[in-house]
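re: the backbone from monday

yeah here it is again, tokenized this time
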């Protein structure tokens, strides 16, 4: 059993033995939605790989309080993660480590385009800090968890410096694991990063700092061509299909 109320966390001994710090961070995010999901139990795979079912019980006498009942899944066994692995949804025998990439720079400097060029595989999926606000942190955490468990492609986290602390902790946990999917992070200028975001940025061996686009006018034709290629908007071409490239911005 786990009881949550604001910053207060109370666990019985069984929960203490079962849950890691990453599991607790994920449960905090999911706790707000659990009583209203409509499902009696939510299936979840812990960092250790243990499959569990979580049931949220609202505490009527305490505002925003919730008690989580955590039980091992009826079918038992482990999920994708192996014992002793770090991060969210890491797997035993996973693909070789993929170091995260940081693309930093001011808004409008072409961070997303540069992030796509840094991707080493497909599919390329984008999670934005804005969607965490619009859809809620619980939904954002579930999407990240599903993408991590897919063990393929690239996850681009746009605006990692704007994520709330709990979601940032989940991203950092996967970055520390060093397993697929590859993480490509975008942020504001590197010198403006502080605290946990700066610590996460420091783990990125591949760091790409972009200057404001106004000071890179010579690159505009290539950037426009890359955007058109990515959208598949040029003369009916499919995205990524070879074809004519722009030689000047007006010609695009």
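seq for it, each position gets an aa:
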């Amino acid at each position: 059993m786990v009881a949550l109320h604001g910053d207060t966390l109370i666990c019985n001994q069984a929960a203490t033995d079962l849950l890691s710090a990453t599991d607790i961070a994920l449960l905090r995010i999911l706790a707000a939605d659990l009583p209203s999901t409509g499902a009696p139990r939510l299936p979840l795979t812990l960092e250790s790989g243990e499959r569990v079912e979580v049931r949220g019980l609202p505490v009527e006498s305490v505002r925003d309080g919730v008690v989580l009942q955590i039980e091992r899944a009826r079918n038992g066994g482990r999920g994708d993660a192996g014992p002793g692995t770090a991060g969210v949804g890491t797997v035993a025998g996973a693909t070789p480590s993929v170091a995260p990439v940081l693309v930093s720079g001011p808004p409008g400097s072409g961070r997303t385009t540069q992030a796509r060029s840094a991707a080493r595989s497909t599919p390329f999926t984008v999670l934005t800090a804005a969607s965490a606000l619009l859809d809620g942190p619980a939904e954002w955490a579930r999407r990240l968890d599903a993408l991590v468990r897919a063990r393929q492609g690239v996850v681009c986290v746009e605006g990692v410096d704007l994520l709330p602390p709990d979601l940032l902790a989940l991203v950092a946990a996967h970055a520390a694991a060093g397993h697929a999917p590859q993480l490509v992070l975008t942020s504001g200028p590197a010198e403006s990063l502080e605290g946990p975001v700066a610590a996460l940025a420091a783990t990125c061996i591949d760091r790409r700092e972009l200057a404001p686009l106004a000071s890179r006018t010579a690159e505009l034709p290539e950037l426009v061509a890359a955007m058109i290629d990515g959208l598949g908007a040029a003369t009916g071409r499919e995205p990524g299909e070879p074809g004519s490239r722009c030689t000047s911005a007006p010609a695009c």
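DSSP finds eight helices and ten strands in the chain. The radius of gyration is 21 Å.
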